[in-house]
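Lab meeting prep.
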Amino acid sequence: MASSTYPSSLFNLSSSSSTSATRLPLRFSGSSFNGCNGVSVTKAWFSSGSRICAKFEKFQAEDDLEESTTQPSLQEVEEDGEQEEDDSCLPSDLEGAVCQSGEASASFVSSGGMRAIVELLIPQLQFLDEEGAQAELWELSRVFLDTLIEETGCERVKAVFPDAGAAALLKYRWTDAAFGFASLSDRKPITSEDEIVVMIVPDYQMLEYVERLASSLLDDPPRPLIMWNPRLISEDVGVGFNVRKLRRYFLSTFTTVYSMRPMESGAVFRCYPGSWMVFFDDKDRPNRYLLAKELLRRPDAEDLEMIFGNMQEDSEQGPSLFDRAAGMFSSMNRFMRIISK
């Protein structure tokens, strides 16, 4: 199969300064595992602590992290006071977010849910052209899979990777994995013995295979399908009828069980079975958030404009906060409105 590329994420919220989606090959090469020795890479990478600090600051550039490490950690803040914070539901670091998404997916499947989407819309998983970024992505996917298996107790989970090369190499590396391996390009990626299927970053160029696999899982007995960080919509190919059709007839059959999207002045978050939450920066405590609003559905661009617009009116610091958010809203408005139809 020809090598495909990573387009922008399912709901790409790139800043206005970015004019096109980042492209990179899905075909996996051994060079992406520089410095890693098999399965031990997961613990080694997460134990570095370089990305662990309060709230979503750990998803920013390393230079920003150095400044934020002097702030009290989330655990320290919560231990000092008994009152639950607005942002206590948010993960403290990237590993925590992935584990949390696995727990949410397990809860959804255990309650009878059949089609789920997990989306971690953070820079580290959006811009994969940096050295080691793809290896990082695969390691995070393993954390998710291990958490899902632990929480559900299911021993027959199949992980479907976007490329046969990636699936083969990871199977070779992860000899102790408790899940099966396959790729979207395999002739028969799933078998009758598979009880839960997880697609890892399915690509829009493989959409036909994605839909075919999803349809096959409806056969008796039906089995749950989870798409982890899907990339089925690309700004590179435009937003038109095909995207609306995809949104209406395919993606609408899925439940977003976990979504984490840090923004310049806040964050959007959902963890099943909870509601959607919109947070804004706490100006009195760096790296912490205050809850702006809870919604039963995903907030669209207009919802966010209204929420942050009300903040402008209610806060003394409103104009500067709104100005920072305005650029981001204008860049994503058209794309979000169209795919939400």
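Slide two material, second protein:
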Amino acid sequence: MARLRRKACIALFLFTLFIFGTMMGLRTLKPSDGFSDLAPGVELLPMIGGKTSRDATASPGQVHPAGSNTKAVLSNSSPEGTIFYDVHIFYYVWYGSPHMDGKYIHWDHILVPHWDPKIASSYPRGRHMPPEDIGASFYPELNPYSSRDPDVLESHMEQIGASAAGVLVLSWYPPGVADDNGEPAEDLVPAVLDAAYRHNLKVQRHQHFLRLYGDHGAFYKFTSSTGKSLPLFYIYDSYLTPPESWSELLSATGSHSVRGSAYDSIFIALIVEERHKHDILAGGFDGMYTYFASNGFSFGSSHQNWKAIKAFCDGNNLIFIPSVGPGYIDTSIRPWNNHNTRNRVNGRYYEMALQAALNARPEIVTITSFNEWHEGTQIERAVPKKTVTRVYLDYQPHGPDHYLELTRRWAEQFNKEKQQWLM
């Protein structure tokens, strides 16, 4: 009985802490980060998995054969070509349209006011009005879509497969909870899993997800250096919780330690400021990632710091995972944030970020993002669009697939160079 009570306490404490961290990240808009109103909550993803059949199909909710959990299996074939399980991409399912949802969701994003009332008074307020006016600086080839549309989901899996990224990173909110501009989307998980499975892509979410979908063919774990196969979580805005509190959960001697329990996992924290690397170590995390696509926005997102962060991680047995993006522009929803815009320069900015990541010799690279349209970090297909009131940015002189093609080229280069590092 005591053991059961201990497990129940661990589960309750962990769930409560994750909800607290998520809600703090969603509701805290600070001058130091400026991004928290769109914080993706707790970011979760698996590491390397095994092989699945590229010809297998399944209906939503069907249990699929689980593959092997082998860290050495870094690539696989998909209908779109070779994919790499050490290239992960942030994916958002918070969009809605009248056809599927009865209204537009997220495409009608509000214009976020600046935290300083004096500055806020100089910028417009209100809400976007799709489909001609959306909360983005680029316009999607699929138009302002619904994440619930099966055709959209299938197209997204095809595009991600074409990019050679092997793992989708889904943002997580507690059941029934959503960000301030969206609606709960937990019921979409089975459809995402099945679509990913058809393309040999991998997906993973939170603990209850493990219980519900742990046998699904799209669910994989990471084999750690100790030989354990464990889920891996990216925890956004982890710095909002003190390292002493994290240590209670993540250190082997913590009073509510999950190490060695059914909840044990590989936990990756967000590094924003330089001091966070020491907090991450003290908190008992297994590694750190950078998320933001704007070079220079934070210490963690600054390319020039990645080699030093990697050296710190190597010296402390931590995993360093840099996040690269094709550019950054969020002025369609934060009109006051032009100073953080990073122009794409026809793909050269993206290639610079990818080269900086490769120079740090990481084990994994994350892409920010497949479809975070509000912040202009998407590599999803975009098209030229001009309305009476707006002219959207586009990928010209290149085609809609330009950033998918660049991602594939660099994913292949990453894995070719990694083979030499390992030798």
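Talking points for slide two:
Confidence is low (pLDDT under 50) at residues 1-72.
The longest strand covers residues 81-91.
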